[in-house]
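User: Fold this; tokens only.

Assistant: Input:
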Amino acid sequence: MQLLTFENIILFSFTLIVIAFLYSSVGHGGASGYLALMTIFAFPVAIMKPSALLLNLFVSSISFFFYYRMNYFKPKLFYPFAIASIPAAFIGGFVTLDNTIYKVILGIVLVFAALRLFGIFNFEEKESVQIKLPFALAIGSIIGLLSGMLGIGGGIILSPILLFFGWASVKESAAISSLFIFVNSFAGMLGFLMGGKIIPTESFYLVPIAVVGGVLGGFYGSGYFSNKTLKIVLGTVILMASIKLIFP
């Protein structure tokens, strides 16, 4: 780890707040951003997954609170994905991948996250379309398994799918994704702990820092806030981290 100097601690903390703010503002927990940041600061792989899951739990729940308060949450759009994703995420939490394989898979997922932040997967809203249950269950199980294995909540994947098929509006997608991320992260964390592992002490130090950004992001995002410039900057950081993971 490179968090040895005061300057690095300040830089890391500030960036963590920005990441939590941005992701919370669009209904996400921010795991892909946290993982990218921890990669840049050379966190051990053993700390990255549990830390990302823990921060996801706090930030996604905060984001959901604000979007739920604004009446954007639609339960009928949430349950089909959650029913399949929760047990899959639990199973994925048991899985400990080889460090090299973990970094490559995570790097590929982060490329997807970066491209979405750049606006490539930000689909236009369509007229509301009836959700197809078997398809939704299949999507939920795949995202859940990936979430548990990598330590992400899956919202970065679910959101564009909801918009692409016209199942939800942007605000509804944010509300659904935030709770989806929470339940997947909880299931993944449970599987992680029941697999005989423990949450490193260092992970808990990051929680209050991320909560600051999560509260601000959830408040502004659920109401009116959007900042394209910060998304581009964050996307660049994530893309740099993904390249570092795939091509060490």
